[in-house]
Structure formats: C-alpha cells, structure tokens
Design goal:
Blueprint: H1 3-13, H2 17-55, E1 60-64, H3 80-91, E2 96-107, E3 112-120, E4 135-138, E5 148-152, H4 153-159, E6 166-172, E7 178-189, H5 194-199, E8 200-204, H6 205-211, E9 220-223, H7 231-241, E10 248-252, H8 253-256, H9 258-296, H10 298-306, H11 311-347, H12 354-361, H13 373-390, H14 392-397, H15 403-408
Parallel strand pairs: 3-8, 5-7
Antiparallel strand pairs: 1-9, 1-10, 2-3, 2-6, 2-9, 4-7, 5-8, 6-7
C-alpha cells in the first residue's frame, strides 16, 4: 500500500464528510454495542456459573470414580476427613468441605416423605454453598451439632413440622444395615428451588457417619474456586496431591453440571443471531456508502482509465478507502466500548428487582461485564471484515467500467 494511495484514499473519504461520518458512526455504535453486549454476556455467564455452583455442587468435587453415574452408598471415599484436611493444608484454602449422602424415609407425627440426607461439616459448608445463608427460620448447623437437622421449607410444610420438632428417619447404611435416627429441626432454609427445598436435608457429617455406619467414609469433597478461570489449574493441583489414592477422581463443574454448559451454549447461539443481524446492517451501510461514492465518481474514474490507469489500481483505491473507514470505526468503537464497559465492570449495575431477589436467594446484587481481549476485538473485528467484504462489489464494478461510457456519464 503506497503512500500516495493512502493520501488519495483519505482525501476521497472527506469529499462527502456527512456521509462518511454517518457510516463511521454506524460502525462506532455497533462496535461499542457489541463490546458491551459480549462483555456483559461473558460476565453474566460467569455470574450464572458461580451462582449455580455455589448453591450446592461447588466448582470441583472429589468423588469415587463410579459415584457420579451411580450414586450409591457403597461408592464412598475412605477417611474423607483426612483427605479433606490434606487438601485444605495443601491448597491453603478453607473453601473445601466433606460430604456424605444417603436416601431415607423421614417421618413426623403426621406424615412421611422420602428425602436425601446430606452429612456436612458445619464449619466449612458455608464456604462452598449458599444454602447455610438461606436459613430464614432458626439457625444453621453448628460445629457441635449432633442430632440436629436443617430442612427445606417445602419439606417442612409437607411434614408439618416447625422449629424444635423431631423427625425420625430410616434408611440403609453402608454395610446394608438399617440406618435410623431421631433428629430435631433447628433450621429451615428456602433456596427458591422447590425440588431442592422439598427433597434435601442436612445433618452433621459425624452424626451421618454414625447413623449410616460409614466408619469415617464420605461420598464427595466440594471445593469452591476463587474465580472460574482458576478451576483448571486448581483441578490439576488436586489431582497431583491425590495421585496416590485409588478409585478416586477429580471432576470439574462441566462434568458435575453438564446441563449448565449446554444452556450457556444455547444462549450464546441465540445472542449471536442478533449480533449477526446488527453486523449485516452495518455491512449494508458500508456497501451503500461505497457504491454511491463509485457511482458519483464514474466520470472521474473513466477519465483516469482513459489516461492509462489500470482498473485494478482504482479498485484497490476503493478498498483502501473502506479499510481506512473501517479502521476509524474500529478504533473509536473499541475506545468508547472499552471505557463504558470497563467502568461498569468496576461499579457494576443492576436492573429493577435484582437487589431484592439477591437478598432473598443469597446471591450477588449487581452484574459486572467481563472485559477481556476477546470481548474487545471479536465483534469489532467481524464488523471490519464484513465492511471490507461489502466494499468488494463497488470495487469490482470498476473492472467492467468502459472509459468512453464512463466519461459520458452525467
């Protein structure tokens, strides 16, 4: 690209300033909107992942290799408390909690219902799950809790129990013996998920191990990462620390919640449909601008070709004009989009009703766009490429332009 071609292209752009600025303005608006929308989308996915995982599963779990596909009592980890302490010391993190799970029939004075009973570590469960923060009646389990239970609001309603009432449960232990116990309701939580509130209850891990004859065993160790981007590295560290133990596997959130990733992919697909419509509109704007420019200069181009100028040179000149216009829209769009998105990524924003919902469900009350290199260049880059492709038609028209007819054009 010669210096003269750049100077000519730049001069030609400003022969019709209003038209050029309208086209550049469309590029700037679309680029800024794409940067904000894609960054917000990435940020909302991160928020959705964290909110879903923090509700119960955590970002990573250590399990028996067969437990995920067939969650039976016998697929347990030996000395789960010792393994959990090893991970806490090795990773220097308190966001790790051991769990055991079993199914039982729970009975009150009036009714009986089937449910899943979880044995948890009361001191560490709040670090990996939001459920302890959702107890709206009574309190959560304490370190010395032994024969106490926390249940969901729907289950409490179904069993017709209140705080202080006793529940009897009957299930099958690790050694196929009968597991039975009488526990007192000390807390009732409301997660907003009816299935969870109906079917889950939590007791202390120590009491669970005694009641279900677990002998120090457990079924999973939940780990919460400080950031979603740290999951892969954290998973490798855990695998390295536990490499000597048999029948044990480390699973990340994708394996634990495959439906969550599928939902994100489906949402991304639908969002890109709207983005493509916006990009096409900008491309047609560039096509209109450059086609008008070529048609208005038909006589000028005919004269230049009559003087011996190659049509390829004129065609490249039109493409250089489009390239300069795309660069201007790209630079201004990225600058404006970055400033707006970066500011909102720091202060966040919320829509009406979000704060009330966040308080109710123990979730963050603001959304934060995620500013990354990909979110900054992906949308504007596609807009720039589409603009250059749109300018191909006006540029290629010059190859079929006849100098005599062009010079006669009004």
């Amino acid at each position: 690209m010669s210096n003269i071609a750049l100077r000519l292209a730049w001069r030609n752009l400003w022969r019709y300033k209003r038209r050029t600025w309208l086209t550049v303005g469309a590029m700037v608006f679309s680029n800024s909107l794409l940067i904000f929308s894609i960054s917000l989308q990435f940020g909302s996915y991160e928020m959705m992942i964290n909110n879903t995982l923090q509700a119960f599963s955590g970002h990573i779990q250590v399990q028996h290799e067969a437990y995920l596909d067939d969650p039976k009592m016998r697929y347990a980890l030996d000395d789960i408390t010792g393994t959990t302490d090893q991970l806490r010391n090795g990773l220097n993190s308190q966001n790790i909690s051991a769990r055991a799970a079993g199914f039982a029939l729970a009975s009150s004075n009036d009714r009986s219902y089937g449910l899943q009973i979880l044995g948890v570590e009361p001191n560490f469960e709040p670090n990996v799950s939001t459920i302890p923060g959702l107890v709206n009646q009574g309190r959560y389990l304490q370190d010395d809790s032994y024969d106490e239970i926390v249940i969901g609001s729907v289950l409490a309603r179904n069993l017709k129990v209140e705080l202080g009432d006793e529940i009897t449960f009957l299930g099958s232990g690790f050694d196929d013996s009968f597991a039975a116990g009488v526990v007192r309701v000390v807390g009732i939580f409301e997660s907003g998920l009816p299935d969870l509130d109906r079917s889950m209850a939590q007791i202390s891990l120590a009491y669970f191990q005694d009641a279900f004859a677990m002998q120090g065993r457990g079924h999973s160790i939940a780990i919460r990462a400080s950031h979603i981007d740290d999951v892969a590295n954290l998973e490798m560290q855990i695998e390295s620390m536990l490499s000597g133990q048999k029948n044990l596997v480390v699973r990340d959130w994708v394996a634990l919640q495959p439906g969550l990733k599928q939902a994100i992919q489906a949402d991304m697909t639908s969002a890109w449909f709207m983005y493509i419509v916006l990009i096409i509109l900008v491309a047609f704007s560039v096509l209109n601008t450059q086609l008008m420019s070529v048609l208005e200069r038909t006589r000028e181009f005919g004269t230049m070709m009559a003087l011996g100028l190659n049509p390829g040179i004129l065609s490249r000149l039109v493409m250089v004009e489009t390239f300069l216009m795309a660069c201007l829209g790209l630079a201004l769009g990225i600058l404006i989009g970055f400033v707006i998105t970066w500011y909102l990524s720091i202060v966040g924003f919320s829509y009406p009703g979000m704060e009330e919902m966040a308080v109710k469900f123990n979730l963050p009350d603001r959304m934060y766009p995620s500013v990354t290199f990909l979110s900054l260049v992906l949308g504007p880059g596609i807009v720039a490429i589409s603009s250059l492709l749109a300018a191909l038609y006006p540029a290629l028209r010059l190859y079929i332009l006849l100098p005599i007819e062009a010079m006669r054009a009004a």
